[in-house]
What does this fold into?
Amino acid sequence: MPMFTSSVMLTAEDGIRLFLGHTARMHTSVSLYHRHRFPTEIISHYVWLYFRFTLSFRDVEEMLAMRGISLSYETVRKWCLKFGQTYANGLRYKSPRPGDRWHLDEVFLKINGRIHYLWRAVDQDGDVLDILVQSRRDTKAAKKFFRKLLKGLRYVPRVIITDKLKSYSAARSEVMPSVEHVQQKYQNNRAENSHQLTRLRERLMRRFKSSGHAQRFLSAFGIIASHFRVGRHLYRASGYRALMKSRVAVWEEAICVEATVN
It folds into this structure.
């Protein structure tokens, strides 16, 4: 469908060619993107935009329109639903093993008038390890979260750092009895600060619609967002550029894309 951007008329095909003119040529996995009308570069880029920045589906739709690409926000939503968790899993498997100090914390989410709890684990560098939305925060819920972490990460940490919730101690003694457990004041600020981005997205989305909706979104959002938030203040300019270059390369592997040199 033709559309106008500024005073120039572009078709969807022209917009795609314009976008690809500023993007490296890529070879893609046929199975993952089979029967999709738009190229992999466009799909992966706008899924990245949605999870990386505080944007709504309509914001991404408008950004596409400014590039001369006409589609609905519902298409963007379906892309994020289909590819978001796949990309996050790819990042988890392609990235180096996280640190051996796990910071764990839980924060409440109000969903349809009921209180749920978002359990989150990050390593000493602030990278999100995993999340789990549950309706309780007792010992059974803590054990379930520990087992999910161990199953997904496939290694045992050297130490875990939590607040003084007693459920952590009871669950650790059963699931990870050999792991050191630290429960000192201010030691768990890293995990508590990691909830800030979740609160921003929760306000933008006008709260989560269900516990399943929260789990689906946050499990992908946490991994993708933290992969690109590396703490700019901790690096010199050259070190930051080198680190971001390596993380972009991991991202391209995770989305089944291999860039080629022109």
